[in-house]
Amino acid sequence: MDMQGSRHLAATRQQAWDALNDPDILKACIPGCDRVEATGPGEYAMGMALKIGPVSARFAGRITLTDVAPPERYTLNFEGQGGVAGFGKGSAQVSLTPEDEGCTLAYVVNAQVGGKVAQLGQRLVDGASRSLAEKFFERFDTALQERLQA
Prior knowledge:
31% of the residues lie in helices and 51% in strands. The chain is of the alpha+beta class. The protein has a single domain (2-149), classed as START domain (Alpha-D-Glucose-1,6-Bisphosphate, Chain A, domain 4).
């Protein structure tokens, strides 16, 4: 599965970078996420519950950041196991570009899924992935604005 997109943020590139690297903000913004914990420099453990079509599962995984160039970009490598529901793994290149009124967050994702999740069909998995991404960015934008107002 490949996915890409961008979103304008009403914050400076540094403010957006700081929020993207805050485990508490990520936990609050990732749909179904109940745990994001730093396990080392640029490494996180996470837990989340997902429902894609008729398949519901709890996933445990890890995130590793590479190609880190603050506050411009990083590559986020992820993998998660959901027991009999399957697995997901891949990477996302994330970049922040400054603009006159804030910055633009852009991403390119390459991911693979296996197990029952993969049996659902590409269209359903792609649709669910796009929906999760959109929910994440809506929540992230709200959390970022709340942080800036505080």
